[in-house]
Design goal:
The structure holds three protein chains of three kinds. Chain A folds into two domains: 236 residues, 3-Layer(aba) Sandwich (Rossmann fold); 233 residues, P-loop containing nucleotide triphosphate hydrolases (Rossmann fold), CATH 3.40.50.300. Chain A is of the alpha/beta class. The longest helix of chain B has 26 residues. Chain C has a single domain, classed as ABC transporter involved in vitamin B12 uptake, BtuC. The two termini of chain C are 39 Å apart. Classes of the chains: A alpha/beta, B mainly alpha, C mainly alpha. Chains B and C meet through helix 1, helix 6, helix 13, helix 17 and helix 18 of B and helix 5, helix 6, helix 10, helix 12 and helix 14 of C.
Chain lengths: 504, 416, 361
């Protein structure tokens, strides 16, 4: 069997960021080919290129030996490439059949849908590939695993020969994962090819025929499962050497700033996101939280900030029970929050900078005096923040939306670090920020630590985690799997922990 | 308007199982007629199933039906059309004027064309320019109302000095269905329980019917067919349920919304035309009297299905018709509602669903109390029944309604 | 920067009025009338002192409706329920006012508070449905408007709270005694409702609340970004509910100018249409108390000056077309202006800095 997909030298640059560099991939027809890598490795960019969502700056892609240029998802579909998205694109208030055929309906006179024909075709597909779906079932009654099968049916219905699955097991429970893997084997047995993106080593080793590792935007190596092991893969994912921590003054106090004991959180649809999570943070230390996105970090943060209540267990923040205390009080007790999604959760985009300075601090001095907003103080302090954190803006009356992402981030960090907080929850604090400003922010975080503040640093940037943290907790699948000492951790330890593999 | 807010607050909805099969629906309808006949014979309120009432019901229901279908088309595609009232006004005016000039048929045609145009205008504002749906609907209501008043002053010859009324228009020819109608009439006269009542109702529906009424009624099954059997209908439904999903499959959601909203305007306009040409034979200022908004209510009441919209408009038309007839009938209807509530209460209790059982039980009790203590239901309350019913449905049954998931939420291409 | 803001703030409404004038001029020309003449006649008639008086009095109600709508808009709420809330306020204010006897200032205060309570509670129904059941406030408010009218019409029935005074066709509530009446003041040779001052006070209070208090900040924040407000500690669903009630309370005041200084009782002759008007005025005035005032005055002016058009052979209803097109032009103008404004600001920021984004790994 030849190579169904040949990717050579693909490059994609964004202003200031190289997302993909010299990416090469050979996928054999009829195989399950896994692509693994951690955050920012370039996996999703590559997938978007393969699916026609973005155009590469350089490189070539050959499908079935023929060179192709993909300008849109429609081109990809025409070539037989189908994408099963991580976030399903389905309508609840419709049947499986309707969701599958939308946009490719077999029709009479171009107007009337031939439902019988469509149903027959879908049932054939279901039988051939052992997909357990009922065409006339309403989507409302389907669970996550079943919905994923509908997404798979969608691409098969359009004649896909190569299926790209983007982190397919992120939303599945173990039982559903087993079913998915059986389905994938069936697909491959019938001659289809599967491209499987993941960060979970155990799963990848069990299902893939070949594994390509990506790191820092490029493809690093391709291995067969039989020829490798978890340690080697983890090392390849993370890199040969880990950054060294910056020497800082250690001043860990006895006081517990954050105490999470056996906390679990389930969404209202029943899915448990956090399981029996334990975490302790004391004043005067920086606790890093490592882990691939989607393993419960966002929910953990919201639990700490009092935005979501824990379903069981306890979350204590500065002595307050976060599950029953209003976010307002938690903030007022001295908790600063640098949110992950700066534009949605951290800023009022259509408001001027000085008003954004007030955001999050409007319930106490100095931003407010009782029930009155203190505009002078806000404007003054905004100017200070702009200067101290090198925010490039002509003034503090400019709308937040006019600033670039990096500058918005600097402003938010500057805002949250003011007022001597006791706990700083910093999620991706230097994402999109230039080197100089990153150094400033890191400096401020370490100064805060020296002053006795506790910092929870959630970051996908390993350099950041290792440079700043006193300890690094690794979160995987909604629980803390290990706590590492940055001075003594090897890349394998980190990689294994982040990908859920127990130490080999 | 508040999108993230709505996503946070909205409760999950479930499928209402009571109306699942056609057999069950037929049984339900037969049951309702049975109760009506019972009540009429026991209380002597002869008006409930008389031909006059059913005929009036239909006349009142059709404009509501058209407004409801207009609302349905727009909402299924994802747009809540606040401008239905204005588009109905467009229909009343153009139908009366062009009907006066060229006969009632041209009146309808004109109303359809201008309605389509007003819908298209609304689509440009909200889909292309991206103005908030409610605001653009508001603007259209204002312009339509003002425009109608202005153009009346410009074009209408004064009818007795009054420029708010159009000159009278010829009416549509009506016909009585041969053979069947006289038979029904004679059965009705014989006063056999239930059979005569049924015949009475059917007689009212078969005498002096105009073709227009039938044509408009056919739009209900047509809408149903389009929504569930045609390519356009499937894509339209997805435009309202998950436009991003549709977009990811190569569907031009903007184009679909343009068409749907234009049709919505046309339907509302036809409802207005009916008001001016069939239910009466003039345009009168204020004729629509909020029916465009009741149209929105019937969409909710009908759970966004054409059949439901039809049922809702018949129900509201019925209460409207009774208002102008005997008031004992209203009382008897309260009793009917009470009996139905009691039946529901028993049904729920048997199935151990205590909360709905309790609610319908108390409603039955309330109906009984009203029937005993109150002589006459004030007219105002009867008029406002549709609004009240909708509010009750929204309050208590919000969980069981299945609106198009993204209806009313702003959508821009490529926003995922 | 401030000069900039004033410029951008007025460009859209001005553009709207101008384009509406142009459109109407076209219509007039098509009828063979001279737009300049027509406008001149309208202006001289409208600014005639006798008419100014009734225009100012009308402005009182319109202004309050506009402020009520604006409060809703700041929270992205479309308070189309102003009609029902205003009626509830005026009606219950009249009924309670007629039923008690208190020293003058207290009496008026009681009426005002009753009106606000009635309007606020009525709005609370829609607010509750929105926050607890996710029901669109537009639909529920439309229903509530009709229901309010029906309830009040019913209560006005002669046996209940209504009376039919001698020589009058309109059923009305019992008249409010002297202690519950507000005086008028003389200006332009006419009587102007002193409630005008209350209205202006409400406008000022609205502005101060919105821009100077923490509550107002939270309100605006929730409207600008539900999630950011929530993350900052605001109880966002609670804010939505409170704002709905507040908007309803202000709407309850809409009829009080007329009630307290003129009719002294509520009857079915009280006008309707305040919801549409209020929403239009808030849009036209960009939710700014001064803008809304000018818009309210413009509206009253147009309506008062309309009849004079009849003498010029132009149907007075053209004024309604003017109002409609103003609203339309306004909303289109906003979109356009907002985009221009944003891109201008972005250019300014770009000029002021050279971006050095680090090359990430």
């Amino acid at each position: 069997m030849g190579n169904i997909l040949e990717v050579v030298g693909v490059e994609k640059k964004y202003p200031g960021v190289i997302a993909n560099r010299d990416v090469s991939l050979l996928v054999r027809e009829g195989s399950i080919h896994a692509i693994i890598g951690e955050n920012g490795a370039g996996k999703s960019t590559l997938m978007k290129v393969l699916y026609g969502l973005i155009r590469p700056d350089a490189g070539s892609i050959k499908v079935f030996g023929k060179e192709v240029s993909l300008k849109s998802p429609q081109d990809a579909i025409a070539l037989g490439i189908g994408m099963v998205h991580q976030h399903f694109k389905l309508a609840d208030n419709a049947t499986v059949l309707e969701n599958v055929i939308l946009g490719s309906e077999p029709s009479r006179f171009g107007f009337v849908i031939k439902y019988d024909e469509a149903r027959k075709k879908l049932l054939e597909i279901a039988e051939t590939y052992h997909l357990d779906i009922d065409p006339d079932e309403s989507l409302l009654n389907l669970g996550v695993g079943e919905r994923q099968r509908v997404e798979i049916a969608k691409v098969l219905f359009r004649g896909a020969k190569i299926l790209i699955l983007d982190e397919p097991t992120a939303v599945l429970v173990p039982q559903e994962v087993t079913e998915l893997f059986e389905n994938l084997r069936d697909l491959v047995d019938k001659g289809l090819t599967v491209l499987f993106i993941s960060h979970k080593l155990d799963e990848v080793l069990s299902i893939a025929d070949e594994i390509t590792i990506m790191r820092q935007g490029t493809t690093v190596a391709t291995k067969k499962p039989a020829d490798t092991n978890k340690k080697e893969l983890a090392e390849l994912m993370v890199g040969g050497e880990l950054p060294k921590p910056i020497a800082g003054v250690q001043n860990i106090s006895q006081k517990s700033i954050l105490s999470i004991k056996d906390a679990s959180y389930s969404r209202h649809d029943g899915r448990e996101i956090l399981h029996h999570l334990n975490l302790e943070l004391h004043g005067g230390e920086i606790l890093g939280l490592a882990g691939v996105e989607g393993n419960g970090q966002s929910e953990l943060i919201e639990l700490i900030m009092g935005l979501l209540p824990a379903t069981s267990g306890s979350v204590e923040v500065l002595g307050l029970d976060a599950s029953t205390t209003h976010t307002k009080e938690i903030r007022n007790a001295g908790v600063a929050y640098i949110p992950q999604d700066r534009q949605r959760d951290g800023l009022l985009m259509s408001a001027p900078l000085w008003e954004n300075r007030i955001l999050g601090h409007q319930f106490a001095t100095p931003m407010a005096k009782g029930m009155w907003v203190n505009k002078t103080a806000a404007a003054e302090d905004s100017k200070r923040v702009v200067e101290e954190f090198d925010v490039r803006t002509p003034g503090v009356n400019v709308l937040a939306s006019a600033l670039s992402g990096g500058n918005q981030q600097k402003f938010i960090v500057g805002r949250e670090l003011s007022g001597d907080p006791k706990l700083i929850v910093a999620a991706q604090p230097t994402r999109g920020v230039d080197v100089g400003a990153q150094a400033i922010i890191w400096d401020h975080l370490m100064k805060a630590r020296s002053a006795g503040t506790g910092v929870l640093l959630i970051s996908a940037d390993l350099e950041e985690l290792f440079s700043l943290s006193d300890r690094i907790a690794v979160i995987y699948s909604g629980t803390i799997v290990s706590i590492l000492n940055p001075l003594k951790t090897t890349p394998e330890d980190l990689g294994l922990a982040m990908t859920g593999a127990k130490s080999a | 308007m508040a999108t993230d807010a709505q996503k946070e607050i909205k409760a999950p909805s479930k499928v209402k199982s009571l109306f699942k099969s056609p057999a069950r629906i037929t049984l339900l309808i037969a049951g309702i007629f049975f109760i009506l006949a019972l009540v009429e014979n026991l209380t002597g309120a002869t008006d409930i199933t008389s031909p006059g009432t059913s005929g009036a019901t239909l006349r009142f229901a059709i404009p509501l039906l058209m407004a409801g279908l207009g609302g349905l088309w727009a909402e299924r595609a994802g747009v809540i059309n606040i401008g239905l009232e204005g588009m109905m006004i467009v229909g009343t005016w153009t139908a009366a004027w062009f009907g006066y000039l060229h006969g009632p048929l041209m009146g309808f045609v004109a109303a359809a064309i201008f309605g389509l145009a007003s819908g298209f205008f609304h689509a440009i504002l909200t889909v292309k320019i991206g103005i908030d749906q409610a605001v653009s609907g508001l603007a259209i209501n204002l312009i339509a109302a003002g425009g109608a008043r202005y153009l009346s002053g410009v074009f209408f010859p004064p009818v007795g000095g009054d420029r708010t009324v159009s000159p009278p228009v010829d009416s549509f020819p009506t016909f009585t269905i041969p053979v069947i109608a006289p038979i029904l009439e004679s059965i009705d006269a014989q006063n056999i329980f239930f059979i005569s009542n049924l015949a009475g109702i059917l007689h009212g529906l078969t005498k002096e019917v105009s073709l227009v009424t039938i044509a408009l009624l056919l739009l209900v099954p047509l809408t149903s067919w389009i929504l569930w059997r045609s390519k356009f209908g499937l894509r339209m439904r997805f435009s309202g349920e998950n436009p991003m999903a549709a977009e990811s499959l190569g569907i031009n959601v903007y184009r679909i919304r343009y068409i749907a909203i234009s049709v919505s305007g046309m339907l509302a306009s036809l409802g207005g035309a009916y008001l001016a040409l069939v239910a009466s034979s003039v345009y009168r200022e204020g004729q629509t009297a909020g029916r465009g908004f009741i149209g929105l209510a019937t969409v909710i009441f009908g759970n966004w299905k054409p059949g439901g919209v039809f049922a809702g408009s018949i129900l509201f038309g019925f209460t409207d018709a009774l208002r102008v007839r005997q008031s004992e009938s209203v009382m008897s209807l309260i009793m009917v509602a009470g009996i139905v509530a009691l039946a529901l209460s028993i049904f729920y209790s048997i199935n151990r669903r205590w909360k709905p059982g309790l609610i319908s039980g108390s409603l039955a009790l309330l109906a009984w109390w009203i029937h005993q203590r109150v002589d006459v239901i004030p007219q105002e309350f009867v008029t406002v029944f549709p609004n009240f019913a909708t509010l009750i449905v929204l309050t208590f049954l919000a969980q069981r309604l299945t609106p198009p998931a993204m209806a009313g939420m702003p959508y821009r291409r490529g926003s995922e | 920067m401030k000069k900039d803001r004033i410029f951008w703030g007025t460009v859209a409404p001005l553009a709207a009025v101008v384009s509406s004038l142009l459109l109407v001029s076209v219509i007039l020309i098509l009828r063979g009338a001279n737009p300049i003449d027509i406008f001149q006649v309208m202006i001289s008639y409208g600014f005639d002192p006798r008419n100014l008086v009734s225009e100012l009095n009308q402005t009182v109600s319109y202004y309050l409706a506009g402020v009520a709508a604006a409060i809703g808009f700041k929270m992205l709420l479309f308070n189309i329920g102003i009609d029902g809330q205003y009626r509830m306020g005026a009606f219950f204010g009249a009924v309670v006012g007629a039923a008690v006897s208190l020293p003058p200032v207290l009496h008026v205060l009681l009426i005002v508070i009753t009106a606000m309570l009635a309007g606020g509670l009525w709005a609370a129904i829609a607010g509750y449905l929105k926050v607890r059941r996710g029901v669109s406030e537009v639909i529920s408010n439309i229903m509530l408007n009709f229901i309010a009218a029906a309830i009040i019409a019913f209560l006005l029935g002669e046996d209940l709270l209504g009376i039919l005074p001698e020589g009058s066709q309109n059923v009305q509530t019992k008249p409010i005694p002297l202690s519950g009446q507000m005086p008028t003041f003389k200006m332009f040779n006419g009587e102007i409702y002193s409630f005008l001052f209350v209205a202006i006070f409400v406008g000022i209070a609205y502005w101060i609340m919105l821009n100077k208090t923490v509550f107002g900040f939270n309100l605006r924040a929730t409207g600008l970004s539900f999630r950011a407000a929530r993350s900052s500690g605001v109880n966002a669903p609670g804010m939505i509910f409170i704002t709905t009630v507040l908007s309803g309370a202000i709407a309850g005041l809409v009829g009080l100018g007329t009630l307290l200084s003129d009719t002294h009782s509520y009857s079915m002759a009280f006008p309707s249409g305040f919801a549409f008007t209020g929403l239009s005025l808030a849009l036209l005035g960009r939710n700014h108390p001064i803008g809304i005032f000018f818009a309210a005055f413009l509206w009253s002016f147009l309506e008062r000056a309309a009849p004079v058009l009849e003498y010029e052979g132009v149907p007075p209803e053209i004024v309604i077309v003017m109002q409609g097109t103003i609203v339309l032009s306004i909303v289109i103008a906003y979109e356009v202006v907002a985009r221009i404004n944003l891109s201008q600001q972005q250019r300014a920021v770009g000029k002021a800095n050279v971006e050095l984004v680090k090359e990430s790994k």
